[in-house]
Design a protein that fits this description.
binds nicotinamide-adenine-dinucleotide, alpha/beta, 7-stranded parallel β-sheet, enoyl-[acyl-carrier-protein] reductase (NADH) activity, NAD
Length: 299
């Protein structure tokens, strides 16, 4: 898709002029991290891009690097202490210490293999928590140890509402996102001494490699769209919002989980969803087709 390599044709405001940053997790043009990299560069930032070796070898990340002013590509498995440490040493050598870090990393082997939540493989569970949650702690810790984070910097990670509400098919990723959001709160006051802020964006379901690996993702995406007054937010829109959080315009925003979801998280019911539920409850064929009896509350 050629268009993905071209800078977004949108007004830019120089919001990140003079800032440097690193973005962990762009994989392909659908990735939220990919869009954040493009938008951050477009807003004037000098950036570095990081991912695991296989992603850098087999993806098109070179193209992203080119589109972002030959941004350095840094190999790093965010679940390995020595990799993260080396990444920050390399970052300092390549562009110096940074004003923002974006954590756009997530992975669950239990979801990939469709393990029922009651039968999670615990090795994979630990890996989900490590890669998708603890890696944020490791990244911030290593950035501090290596003196790679400037005063007044912004740290941003991507979350999902399943951290706080039950989403059956999101399985152990819900637990990882709870951990991620908790790490943000724990770090907040510790980083604040240097004016550094740390937040998560809780994004709508988005068609990406990680997102569409979740069983029934298409239905989730449709449902979420019907429940959101402004509709689902895209990866590009998420990147636009992210830029504000990396900029000086949000200097006093910290320790927050910020919903970027078209209003979804504040809705109780929407007219189309109520009508759909009513139709199915009064149509035996349809009720059978969607296995309604399996999910009806016991009376
Ligand atoms: N897609 C959605 O519906 C959605 C919704 C809300 C939040 N998010 C979150 O957005 C973030 C980005 O995901 P995405 O949807 O853009 O999918 P994506 O698949 O494009 O990105 C996930 C990235 O994580 C990287 N990764 C996996 N293991 C790693 C490791 N050990 N070390 C370093 N990187 C590793 C992958 O290589 C990939 O680049 C994730 O935190 C995800 O949970 C996604």
């Amino acid at each position: 898709m050629e268009s993905a390599y071209i800078m977004p044709d949108k007004a830019h405001y120089g919001l990140l002029k003079g800032k440097k940053g690193i973005i962990f997790g762009p994989l392909d043009e659908s990735s939220i991290g990919w869009q954040i990299a493009l938008h951050a560069y477009n807003e004037g930032a000098e950036i570095a891009i990081s991912n695991v070796a296989t992603a850098l070898r087999f993806g098109n990340i070179d193209a992203l690097s080119k589109a972002c002013g030959n941004a350095p590509l840094i190999v790093c498995d965010a679940s390995r202490d020595e990799d993260v440490n080396k990444a920050f040493l390399e970052l300092k050598e390549q562009i110096g210490s940074v004003d923002f870090i974006v954590h756009s990393i997530g992975m669950s082997q239990n979801i990939r293999k469709q393990m029922p939540y009651e039968e999670l493989n615990y090795e994979w569970f630990m890996r989900t928590l490590d890669v998708s949650g603890i890696s944020l702690h490791r990244i911030v810790s290593s950035a501090l140890k290596n003196d790679a984070l400037n005063d007044g910097a912004s740290v941003l990670a991507l979350s999902y509402i399943a951290s706080q509400r039950n989403y059956w098919t999101y399985s152990d990723m819900g637990d990882a996102k709870s951990l991620l959001e908790s790490i943000v709160r724990s770090y907040g006051p510790r980083l604040a001494k240097r004016g550094i802020r740390i937040n998560t964006i809780s994004q709508s379901p988005t068609y990406t490699k990680a997102g569409s690996g979740i069983p029934g993702f298409e239905q989730m995406h449709e449902y979420s769209d019907l429940m959101s007054p402004l509709g689902n937010a895209s990866a590009e829109e998420c990147a636009e919002y992210s830029v504000t959080l990396l900029s000086d315009l949000t200097r006093k925003v910290t320790m927050q989980n910020l919903f970027h979801d078209g209003g979804y998280s504040s809705m109780g019911a929407t007219i189309p969803m109520i009508r759909l539920a009513h139709e199915v409850l009064h149509d035996n064929d349809l009720a059978e087709r969607v296995s309604l009896d399996d999910y009806k509350p016991s009376r």
